[in-house]
Design goal:
about 280 residues, alpha/beta, Rossmann fold, 6-stranded mixed sheet, globular
């Protein structure tokens, strides 16, 4: 579905993407995970043509991205950002209906589609259609952002720290609602996050990035149990445990099994670390 080949990108004298290769299959969820400045958001912008690579090629459906009308490509890629990226002077309905209107859908079809999405996201249409973003909570704004990204039923969904501005309880709830949407079953999803727990919960595969490179592209379980190098190992220890072991996964026997296996392979005293966190 999406392929990046030998991608390089600089801004001024700073090289922010350094030879990335990445293939994302249809209906796969890939999470770009890493510290701030690792190149995650730049990679996402390269995928939908917001910026162009200095070297290398981006492919969409096995065709070079530049061979398409870029506006039409973007209409096939829903885009979500922090706090939904809603237009403050548009009503909630106008925000959610934006892309279908650009595609010149009939008004009745648009209303039916937005109503359907709102109901799936626990938003009562008659209560929310005429409100403005400033009248909504952060969680409600994010739900509207999800509805807008999915409104035209795009085959690809791009998400840039979509839940990052929410408090932990709201973020966890909305993430759960999002994962349960039947809308996602056939979609290719690429998401940016620095939240390890979020990445492990949502991804089929994780592309862990560092200083403009993908240092490991693998399943969450393989990254946990078989880190590719010392950076990945340190990242998992310092980030994953702190963010995840206080969560429900701490009580998951499968995770304990994985941690015990990892401790055997890498001489890490996980039980001591866990006891210090709980």
């Amino acid at each position: 579905m999406i392929r990046l080949e030998n991608i390089y990108k600089s801004f001024g004298r700073e090289e922010v993407i350094k030879g990335i290769d990445l293939t994302i299959a249809k209906s796969e969820t890939v999470v770009l995970l890493g510290l701030s400045g690792s190149g995650k958001t730049t990679t996402l912008k390269l995928i939908n043509g917001l910026i162009s690579p200095d070297k290398g090629k981006v492919y969409f459906k096995d065709q070079p991205l530049q061979s398409f009308d870029i506006l039409k490509v973007r209409q096939k890629m829903g885009y979500m950002i922090q706090q939904g990226g809603l237009f403050p002077h548009y009503t909630v309905y106008e925000n959610a209906a934006l892309v279908p209107k650009l595609l010149k859908w009939p008004e009745e079809k648009i209303k039916t589609r937005i109503k359907e999405l709102f109901e799936k996201l626990a938003l009562e249409p008659h209560l929310f259609f005429d409100k403005y973003p400033a009248q909504l909570s952060g969680g409600q704004q994010q739900r509207i952002g999800i509805a807008r990204a999915l409104a035209a039923n795009p085959p690809v969904l791009l998400m840039d720290e979509p839940f990052g501005a929410l408090d932990p309880i709201t973020r966890s709830g909305i993430r759960k609602e999002f994962l349960e949407l039947d809308e996602l079953k056939e979609k290719t999803v690429v998401m940016v996050t620095h939240d390890v727990q979020e990445a492990f919960e949502m991804a089929d595969r994780i592309a862990l990035m560092h200083q403009g490179k993908i240092v490991q592209l693998d399943t969450p379980q393989n990254i946990l149990t078989n880190p590719a190098d010392s950076f990945v190992k340190d990242f998992i220890i310092n980030e994953y445990l702190i963010l995840s072991l206080k969560s429900k996964e701490h009580r998951n026997k499968n995770l304990y099994h994985e941690l015990n296996e990892l401790s055997r392979k890498q001489s890490i005293d996980w039980q001591k670390i866990i006891s210090g966190l709980t």
